[in-house]
Amino acid sequence: MAAPPVIELDDVSLGWRGRIAVRGVSGAFRRGSLTAVVGPNGAGKSTLLKGIVGLLNPLKGHIRLADDPRRDLAFLPQANELDRSFPITVYDLVAMGAWRRVGAWRRFAGEEHERVEHALEAVGLSDFRNRIIGTLSGGQLQRALFARLVLHDARTLLLDEPFAAIDRDTTEDLMRLLAAWHEEGRTVIVVLHDQEMVRARFPEALLMAGQAVAWGPTESVLTLENLHLARHLCAGDYL
Ligand SMILES: Nc1ncnc2c1ncn2[C@@H]1O[C@H](COP(=O)(O)OP(=O)(O)OP(=O)(O)O)[C@@H](O)[C@H]1O
Fold first, then answer.
1. Total structural domains within the chain
2. Beta strands per DSSP E along the chain
3. What's this model's pTM, rounded to 2 decimal places?
4. Is the ipTM beyond the 0.95 threshold?
């Protein structure tokens, strides 16, 4: 029997300043699924994720979430949307992932401290715990942000181009972490441009081009025909 839906989209349209960027998407992400969201530049992939996490209200249609979005949904936006000038340490950035459990002002228990140390170790940043985040390289910052996701411990994770402009080793390490979340039964949705990685590591895919072109098992989504259609619909560069 198919797993129950975690996120259901019913004829969802989303846009910016009255202009539609994503039109009429219907379908569901099922509990425990690992899905890559792919498509040309400007296809509406980021817009769709922002709609799901509640940063953008649908212009039309409904988005239904099975879980409490404040506790069970974690979102990692594109790196360029992050303010790195805030003077906090790697440790504090990672610890912030726990605030839904701990509360903003309550005491940070020893157990949470251990969780932070464990997460830093998992991403290879134990020696960087006291560094100010503005001094990190792109790959190190992405590792720290993944550690923060570990602390968040959400049932569903949405990540927008987490491997953009980072080196191969970091990508491989973080991909392993992502695969582990999937193995733990979490629902994972990732915007990606690397088609090879999608085919090799993601069982499901959603191909966007201002609308959902195809959604389902990756090999049935990333067909030449669908990819041509997506390119045609966006009339831009593909992947
Ligand atoms: N904050 C914004 N304000 C106005 N328009 C926006 C905003 N963000 C995105 N758009 C527009 O919405 C459309 C979809 O953009 P979106 O960023 O969702 O695409 P994408 O598939 O994630 O693209 P990319 O692969 O280039 O990151 C584009 O036409 C874009 O210009």
1. 2
2. 5-16, 19-30, 34-38, 60-65, 73-76, 156-160, 187-191, 204-208, 212-217
3. 0.93
4. yes
